[in-house]
Amino acid sequence: MSAGVELCNVTKRFGAMTAVDNVSLRIEPGEFLTLLGPSGCGKTTMLRMIAGFDVPTSGAIRVGGEDVTALPPYRRPVNQVFQSYALFPHLSVAENVGFGLRMQGVAKGEAAERIAQAIELVSLAGLGERRPHQLSGGQKQRVALARALVCRPKVLLLDEPLSALDAKLRHAMQLELKQLQRRLGMTFVFVTHDQEEALTMSDRIAIVNRGRIEQFGSAHEIYHRPATAFAADFVGQANLLEAEFVRRENGTVRVKLSGGLELVLSAATWPDDTAKALISIRPEKIHVSKQPVQAENVFAARVEEEVFKGALDHLILVTPGGARLNAVAANESALLEAIHAGDQVFCGLHASDLVVVRA
Amino acid sequence: MDPLASPAAPDAKSLPSDHRRARWRAWLLLTPMVLWLVAFVVVPTAILLVYSFCERDELGRVVFSFTWENYQRVLDPVYLRIFGRSIGYAALTTVICVVVGFPVAYCIGRASEAWRQRLLLLVMVPFWTSFLIRTYAWITILKEEGLLNGALSALSIVHAPLDLLYTPSAVVIGLVYAYLPFMILPIYGSVEKIDGALIEAAHDLGAGPLRVFTSVIIPLTLPGIAAGTLLVFVPAIGMFAVTDLLGGAQVPLIGNVIQNQFMQARDWPFGAALGMVFMLLFAVSYGLILRFRREETA
Ligand SMILES: Nc1ncnc2c1ncn2[C@@H]1O[C@H](COP(=O)(O)OP(=O)(O)OP(=O)(O)O)[C@@H](O)[C@H]1O
Ligand SMILES: [Mg+2]
Predict the structure, then answer these.
(1) Of A125, A268, B157, B286, which alpha carbon lies 20 to 30 A from A159's?
(2) Across chain B, what does the average pLDDT equal?
(3) Is the pLDDT of residue B16 over 80?
């Protein structure tokens, strides 16, 4: 059985430093929740408080409706995969995986079976007799994962468990973890600073910045409707532009950017009685072409720089008014369509792809 | 054996020349230590070995010959009993040192950086004073009208002064006092190396404080305990100053007997034979502990 987790006004201070600042968060049972944020923003600290290694300075933590704020880690129905693996060097892989079962007093026969299953699950079959120092970084991470999973916790906490893997293995493990979580129906609280990883795996994402939660929502919401400038920038490096209210038109609002460029956006996103606001434009929403394009907003621009990124070209565009925009274009194989630095291009932008964000 | 050969190194002939030069330089750097070992360990041991097969004349001079007689005397029940007693005292000392030293070493090892330095200094402070002087100080503490009895009767814990000095207890107290730092330091070394995340991981997996101690901390500090045992047990067998001063020659240990042969009895060949047997014991226990440690890390 999985359980939900609730943080109620949780604050954690280390001396004068506030690592977690009055955070309230409700994680549903069986949910894959990701804490996403830059280094040092307090993700590990939040996880450590759920696991019980750090005690909140104030606030309460509930797991499965039960207040666990005062419980020591070994009495909580949660297990953690540590950022540093923390494998026991004096025990073999199998003994590491079986440690939790031994502590719970699971019978030998059953334990052996579950250990074998868990090792199989993380594709480490045949390595059960090895010691941790005989494993690669990625293998250690998988042992750490198996060691936590085998205990069948109600909530599994994962602190950047895939950071040591190469890109290919990481992608494979991301999908595997996600499938595993679905199959077990276990609540996962996953920490990462990799936005792509968060978008791939999560049911919901909490964007953490300086100990606070900036935005909490599904991957779609976070991506399409960033609430704050930080969220828009951290996930997908959106263009953030100052916009000035010009007038309302039927169902849309016309705004003027600092460079003089005028755009229309959905009226719903523009707060009433606001003269100025920050708008976010995702680079990949700007339709760049050498041919004229169709959209609510069409403007010309010059390509200042082109950075080859494999499947995509990263472009820096400058509008006649001097505004700079990041955009991406698919790497066309036809030479005529290929876009290079110095080219004049047409840009199309749909009104619904412009989002007003809080500073 | 070549101390510089690493298991992966190819044999010397195929080494490139700068490799070989580096090796020569290493040997050169080791020269002072090798000379020191030869002068103060190898040569004296060889002399002892030769003496142990010699005889002595009436004046106590060593007469060169070849006899097993000295070794036969070692097997005399009187001396075997003393050997046994020495081992017993050393074992008791070692056990007490582990029991007392482990918590101390553990606390120091898990203290904050600043405190660790201060506490370690406290462990070392006794070394600033000569060992003999410190052992004499214990006489003042343990004697009939000494500090300990004074304190105990002032607190009305005892009414008649305890008979402490010149008893086996005094010898054990003295031995523990002498060797405790040699137990604390290596255990501290392995406690300090334990990654705090391992203790957290054990807690996370459902181990309470006691289980963490028995399943994680003890196994990870075993190398330190083994090293401490080596540093305490072996020298404690041969200690003679403590038994002389605090035991009042009531409980002679093997160290006293050996010292006696060389000084008062002037029977150097027999003393040498006792010394050789003692060294053999040392080598055997050292080998056992090393083997135990190898099994631990393998
Ligand atoms: N024990 C501690 N004492 C003092 N400050 C701490 C302690 N633990 C964490 N901090 C501080 O709290 C802040 C949050 O740390 P935390 O480890 O939660 O960051 P994080 O989001 O996990 O970062 P990363 O992605 O780099 O792992 C940091 O500024 C850190 O320096
Ligand atoms: Mg962290």
Answers:
(1) A125
(2) 87
(3) no
**Interface pTM, i.e. ipTM:** 0.82
Q: Could you tell me if residue B34 is inside a domain?
A: no
Asked, for residue B179, whether it belongs to a domain, the answer is yes
The response to whether residue A17 sits with its C-beta less than 6 Å from ligand 1 reads yes
Q: Which residues surround ligand 2, an ion (CB under 5 A)?
A: A 44
Ligand that lies nearest to the alpha carbon of residue A37, given by its number in the listed order = 1
Residue A42 beta carbon below 6 angstroms from any ligand 1 atom:
yes
A119 vs A312: which has the higher pLDDT: A119
Instruction: Evaluate: CB of A12 within 6 angstroms of ligand 1.
Output: no
Query: Fold identical between A5-231 and A239-357?
Result: no
Give residue A269's pLDDT: 84
Q: Is the pLDDT of residue A130 over 70?
A: yes
Tell how far the Cα of A172 is from the centroid of ligand 1, in angstroms.
29
How far is the centre of ligand 2, averaged over its atoms, from the C-alpha of A43 (Å)?
6
Report the distance separating Cα A111 and Cα A102, nearest Å. Answer: 8
A74 touches chain B (CB under 8 A): yes
Mapped onto helix, strand or coil, the DSSP state of residue A324 is: strand
Does residue B2 sit within a domain? no
* % of chain A at pLDDT higher than 90: 58
Residue ID of nearest Cα to ligand 1 atom 18? A42
Q: pLDDT, tens digit, for every residue of B156-175?
A: 888 888 888 888 889 999 99
Q: Domain containing B158: what range? A: 72-297
Residues 6 or more apart whose Cβ sits within 8 Å of residue B239 = B175, B178, B253, B255
Q: Are strands A239-249 and A276-281 parallel, antiparallel or unpaired?
A: antiparallel
- The predicted-structure confidence for A222-273, as pLDDT tens digits, reads as follows 999 999 999 999 988 889 988 888 888 888 889 988 878 888 888 888 888 7
> Which letter, b or e, does each residue of A73-96 get, where b requires 16 or more Cβ atoms within 10 Å of its Cβ?
bbebbbbbbbbebbbbbbbbbbbb
Supply the pLDDT for residue B7: 47
Where are the domains positioned within chain A?
Answer: 5-231, 239-357
B274/A268 Cα distance (integer angstroms): 99
Closest Cα in chain A to B205: A100
For the CA of A43, the closest atom of ligand 1 is 21
CATH topology of domain A5-231: Rossmann fold (3.40.50)
**What is residue B158's predicted lDDT score, i.e. its pLDDT?**
82
Interchain CB contacts (distance < 8 Å): A and B = 61
User: At B15, is the pLDDT very low, low, confident or very high (cuts 50, 70, 90)?
Assistant: low
Instruction: Check if CATH label 2.40.50.100 holds for domain A239-357.
Output: yes
How close is the Cα of B107 to the center of ligand 2, in Å? 27
- ∠ CA(B160), CA(B166), CA(B168), 5° rounding? 100
Of all ligands present, the nearest one to the C-alpha of A42 is 1
| Cα three-residue angle B155-B161-B167, rounded to 5 degrees | 125
- What's the number of domains chain B is made of? 1
Min mean pLDDT across A87-101, A111-125, A244-258 is at A244-258
The arithmetic mean of pLDDT across residues A202-220, rounded, is: 94
Query: Looking up tokens 């499938």, which residue turns up?
Result: A179
CA B59 distance to own-chain centroid:
35
Question: Chain A contact for B226, CB < 8 A?
Answer: no
